[in-house]
Specification:
Elements: E1 6-8, E2 26-28, E3 31-33, H1 36-42, H2 49-57, H3 61-70, H4 79-97, H5 99-106, E4 113-115, H6 134-149, H7 152-165
Parallel strand pairs: 1-4
Antiparallel strand pairs: 2-3
Helix pairs in contact: 1-2, 1-3, 1-4, 4-5, 4-6
């Protein structure tokens, strides 16, 4: 039904594309990242070039996640203040830079998006609904943004067109 939430987590399940481990490379900050996960984890170490570069060179999102966790003591002190904005920036880039993924996201209409796993109670629902589901919330913000800005590239042409008529 149109109003039921969409649960996502496993990459090979429906809407697996919404997960941060999904292989959709993004260009951000002048670099190419293999996943949003890799970009997100690297941002914890913006003042530690060695760790930042190391994450950039890791082959899988799991390695990026594990490496960041192992070096948690070096994580930037303002992380809790900036992580939501960083996640939004990464997810927006992913869906803007991959038209097929954008199509899937916009096809969800106004349905609630929920990252469903007991492994995470901040980004996901904690498995039992008690988690914050911050990734789901972020993706709904991205969806809202894209559904209101999807004509950006065309608007200039339309304006030029109108100007010639006056």
């Amino acid at each position: 039904m149109a109003h039921h939430p969409i649960y996502f987590y496993d990459l090979d399940a429906p809407y697996g594309e919404f997960g941060n481990f999904y292989p959709a490379p993004i260009q951000l900050d002048g670099l190419t990242w293999s996943t949003t996960e890799q970009y997100f984890q690297a941002q914890k170490f913006v003042s530690h070039k060695k760790q930042y570069r190391h994450i950039l060179e890791l082959a899988t999102p799991r390695e990026a996640f594990d490496y960041a966790r192992a070096h948690d003591s070096l994580k930037r002190s303002d992380w809790n203040d900036v992580k939501d904005d960083i996640m939004f920036k990464a997810c927006l880039a992913k869906f803007q830079q991959h038209p097929k993924l954008k199509e899937i996201l916009l096809s969800t209409g106004h349905r609630t998006l929920v990252e469903h796993t007991e492994n995470d109670s901040y980004w996901a629902d904690g498995g039992d609904g008690t988690g914050k589901n911050q990734l789901g919330i972020t993706l709904m913000k991205v969806r809202h943004y894209l559904s209101h800005h999807h004509n950006d590239h065309h608007s200039h042409h339309h304006n030029d067109h109108h100007n010639h008529h006056h």
